[in-house]
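Format notes (please read before filing issues)

Several people have asked whether sequences and structure tokens are stored in separate files. They are not. Every record keeps both together, in the order shown below: the sequence lines, then the token lines. Line labels are part of the format and must not be stripped during preprocessing.
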Amino acid sequence: MSLSRSSSRTYLRLSILSALGLFAVNTAMAATPEVINTNDSEMPQVELDKIVVTATRTPTKTSNVVAQTRVIDKEELQRYQGQTALDVLKRQPGFSHYTNGGAGTTSNFYIRGYDGKQVLVLIDGVRYSSLSTGGATLNLLPVDQIDRIEVLYGASGSSIYGADAMGGVIQVFTKGNNIEQSNISVTAGIGSHDQYLYGASAQFANDKGTTLSLAASHNETDGFNATLPRDLPSQTDDDGFESDNYSLFLNQKINDSLRFGISGLYSKSTTDIDSYDDYMTGAPALKHAFSDQESGAASAYLEHFTDSSNTKLQYGYSIDESTTYETDVNNGSQYDTKQQQISLVRTQTLPIGKAIIGAEHLNQELKSNVYDANDRKVKSGFLSYLVSHNNIDAQANVRYDDYSDFDSETTYNLGAAYHLTPEFRVGANYAKGFRAPTFNDLYYPNSGNPNLKPETSDNYEAFIEYNTGLQSTRLTGYHNKVDDLISFVSIFDTDGKYAGGSSENVDKAKIKGLTLTSDWVLDSYLFGASYDYQKAKDDSDYTGKVDDLGNPIDYNGNYLPIRPENKGLIYLGYHLPSLDIRAEYEYIGHYYYSVNNADSQIIDSFGLFNISGNYQLTDNLTMSARLNNITNKEYVTALGYNTDGTNFFTSLTYNWF
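Then the structure lines:
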């Protein structure tokens, strides 16, 4: 069903009250003496000290990692049925974002002030992004095909994974990475704006070292009007979205020291969009414009392991393909990204600590009917040392990347932490990062510049942390300096007339801030909060620089767009073996939509109240539900584009074990 803000209020209030009443009754029933089980093995287990791979390239406890990390496990992902990886990540500490409408539409995210194209995204260790724009389409990765997501904050990932990790690394792990028992499941869900989801998965595990997961789903919605009527009155129609999604994961143990595996995550989707007349040809916009997208990654690996070493050979292949039909239904704008990488990584346990050495080869290819681009080849080598000994945790990395289309880059990272007590830890980290120019930066008509060099950054981080069995609290401060930022520079002839322009390495930025996170578990209650204070400002020298009209500009000291100075979230949850419910309130402070910081570019602050839950109706049947923006708050994340009012999604999953 599709409901407007005004007509849906009564219905949604009744839905909310009904859902809350159901959860309250089930909570009360779960707390009665007849069903309380005092066996510790059957009580819910919430692990605050999780295992993370992305931060070090080998499994490591989060309490031993120096750089800030966050793990979003499958229990938390269960609260986001029917949604995408972007929906999950935009609520995490350090993130900000904007969207131009509903599902599948243009969007971008930022981590600690860094643009999404300055953040590396991996799927099972394989690079995933668009070579044209540089960003990763996280809004096309469905939650129901994901096992967990890991976030590494800061630039230490540059010296582990190479380019584009100045702001951090996001790694998505395909569903099936962690199979506990064989099962078959089917899921059906329904939500606002006539959203329907249905899917099935089969997971198999045996005592011979075989695990296999296959999953498929279909998601569709009528969507809502993406544009505000006053800004584009001719296109006030709903903007629908549909996708077919598939995942595969196989892990086979060959003998006591050898195993191989394959994994894949694939999504094919169509998004209805609002189109505009072509300003170059004058071609009128289509009434029903749309974009077809294909995205995902696949990999195969062979791994040899002993008690003291691990050697892994991996081949990966990823795609990000899109064709947008905006003015011609038979001839759209095509951008097809293909990336192939092969890596060999060895981890060796030493008398004290571990050494990691590796080599990679990456081939990047873009096919487009808008412009021609040369393939990019990158040859890389890296070395890391990790130690957790006595009261000290330390990590040192160095990486060399040789690019076919510009000079080589060397990045490094050094971080250390000291346990003042078993629970209390302090530490600091320095990392050198860089971002390779996108193919749009290099080759786009009338703006590309093949002589660009990478953006670079110096990143400093310090933290204090207190962890016990009941809670985990961390305060992180960071200060980053970014040089050689790529920006479009206008050119004027001797008569002062605009004569075009090109992308140049002319801009700079300074980013500093604080992030506080605190998560608590008291019996069956979970609660916590996060707060971000951030100042991301332009630090460029605009001497002699003018806009497209020839007017002098100076943005030095202005706030960078889409980076709120204040952001916070608080949550309260209740967790039992058969019930998991969570309420959260998220606050986003005001921010600017462009770097000129004009009053007309201010996005007002807003707060959103959401509630989600999972309830095991029987041993085989589970219900999931989520209510977003319960107070029906009217807000925008991008000027001229709508956001959704109160909306819901609920699903039922039946398992055969």
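For reference, the curators noted about this record: Residues 537 and 559 are 4 Å apart (CA to CA). The domain at 5-656 is CATH 2.40.170.20 (Maltoporin; Chain A).
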